[in-house]
Amino acid sequence: MSDEGGTSEDGLECRPGEETVALPVAFDAGLYFIGRISTPWTRRADCPKNGRQTDAVCTVRVDPAFVPALQNVEGATHLILLYWMDRAARNLVRQRPRHADGSRGTFSLRSPARPNPVALSVVELIRRDGGTLQVRGLDCLDGTPLVDIKPYYASTDSRPEALVDRSGRGSGSA
């Protein structure tokens, strides 16, 4: 689709400056959802833009087959959750965020609309009860599929020197 806005082949509404592509016919890999996430948000408009914008306590329910993988998870104060934004568009390669003057490449954004809608959040682990985790710091819709859980290590995961050019100018070409 051109970058003039309108409706894409799959019925997705596009803003001026957005661009879609035809997706490949087949997938390259498979994955297993290991559980589901319960949050207070059922509409995208109500969902926070990132997990630091809310104090809501959310519930992560790990499927029974994967509960043994939670052994020792309580040793971490924070976890990295990877989840599948199953209700997001997958064919946008150029997007126009509401806060931006122009379009941006999908891979320069944290938007859930992307070819593989994998999202991540660093969450605070409040408590574990069997296969259920209570966490704070999520930004996804109720019922979102869970892909993975990893401990957050401040010593290796934190990058205080990291910067993002929020102007959108960057050094690459269009």
Structural overview:
The protein is mostly beta strands and 174 residues long. The protein has one domain (6-21, 33-155): Elongation Factor Tu (Ef-tu), domain 3 (Beta Barrel). It is 2% helix and 31% strand. The protein contains one helix and eleven strands. A six-stranded antiparallel barrel has the order 4-5-10-9-6-11. Strands 3-7-8 form a three-stranded antiparallel beta sheet, with no helix packed on it. Strand 1 (6-7) and strand 2 (13-14) form a beta hairpin. The mean pLDDT is 88.
CATH architectural name: Beta Barrel
Number of helices: 1
Helix content: under 10%
Report the CATH topology name. Answer: Elongation Factor Tu (Ef-tu), domain 3
Beta percentage is 25-35%
Structural class: mainly beta
List the helices and strands in order. EEEEEEEEEEEH
Mean pLDDT: 88
What are the low-pLDDT stretches, counting only 5+ consecutive residues below 50? none
Superfamily at the CATH H level? YaeB-like
Radius of gyration: 18 Å
Total individual domains: 1
Largest sheet: 6 strands, antiparallel, barrel
State the strand order across the main sheet. 4-5-10-9-6-11
Q: Please give the CATH class.
A: Mainly Beta
| Strand count | 11
Q: What is the chains' assembly state?
A: single chain
- Intertermini distance: 16 Å
Shape: globular
